[in-house]
């Protein structure tokens, strides 16, 4: 027999139900925006071998929602088990997806809406028990984040498609503060990862203590202006700055500048979402691969931060000694704190979010551009795969490098001070930038 629910449980459950419904709706309206901005022909087409046709992402989002919520959490009958294989990201490599017998757009949309109806039905009655998949609405949160992550992938596909602009957004705020230079992070322990954020994914857990020597980190992401100095100084033609693998990649792919840049008189122009703009000097550089970031850092006499260094700079509060959820505190992101949620279609200039700085004065860690770190992707000490190995564990190892902090195209539901992203060191179709770090020099440390 079920234990009766207390009044407080009921209130908490209702609040959680409301939050889940709002987050599901927000994700779906973004998916609709990204897939209704182009015609059916465009949705079915592959814009780059790196990406799926948008219509694959669309039905895949619905299929994951069906698998986890309708079938697993709800224990309901399948809506369409005949398409599971088609939309399994592990069975279908991206380059092969356009040749699959994909659901045409109208059918994909109808499928998504049937699944969503069943999820709303389930949400009305589900009890948030201690079962790990439903405690604190975890599986719903995972599906919200999954859809938002695919929306960011779809936004990256939009950046790769040719043709006139179809996405529109106001520009990000202008700088409100002059931000530059470096910040010293004193030696000592801090708490990395989380045990308490209810929708944190398996790779963000568990919380654990990490002791770091003193280091210095850039107060802001590397800007286009700084990056252009590296280009102008012959950075792309000097193997001294590049790792052996990075140099080989640079030569093979003939990289001479960030992706989507072209020469424009004496300067550079940058194509974003179908429009050419002059490269703006005070904006964080975006669309660089890990090898480019590493070469820039070497040229600047620095290095990339480790993942732990990035997270300590973002979360550690020297006054309380505790780690915050975000650089500015524990409060969810708002427009005052960070450039997230695809509100703008570009990174904001450095100094645009003074309210979002960390206690030590490190700016724009969240939003704007994903930041490459020097770290390979691995489990935190004590890692347990949940709810399945394919979420993160199968990606652990030397092949990937960790990116942190989210971009202008990352939704706030899929971005935290602990959130971890990973990709191959050659990838730059993602909204990736970086900042530099270095060991503290003599006289700079101090515990
Ligand atoms: Fe997926």
UniProtKB/TrEMBL annotation:
Documented EC number(s): 1.14.99.50
**Which InterPro entries does this one have?**
CTDL_fold, DinB-like, DinB/YfiT-like, EgtB, EgtB_Actinobacteria, Sulfatase_Mod_Factor_Kinase, SUMF_dom, SUMF_sf
Reactions catalysed, as given in the entry: gamma-L-glutamyl-L-cysteine + hercynine + O2 = gamma-L-glutamyl-hercynylcysteine S-oxide + H2O
Residue stretches making up the DinB-like domain: 24-154
Give the protein's cofactors: Fe(2+)
What does the record give as the organism's lineage?
Bacteria, Bacillati, Actinomycetota, Actinomycetes, Micromonosporales
The domain of life is Bacteria
Q: Which family does it belong to?
A: Belongs to the EgtB family.
One GO molecular function term of this record is: iron ion binding
Positions that bind gamma-L-glutamyl-L-cysteine? 94-97, 423, 427
Q: Which residues bind Fe cation?
A: 60, 146, 150
Q: Which organism is it from?
A: Micromonospora profundi
**NCBIfam families linked:** egtB_TIGR03440
Protein name as it appears in the record: Hercynine oxygenase
Pfam families given for it? DinB_2 (PF12867), FGE-sulfatase (PF03781)
Record-linked PANTHER family: HERCYNINE OXYGENASE (PTHR23150:SF36), SULFATASE MODIFYING FACTOR 1, 2 (PTHR23150)
Q: What class of enzyme is it?
A: oxidoreductase
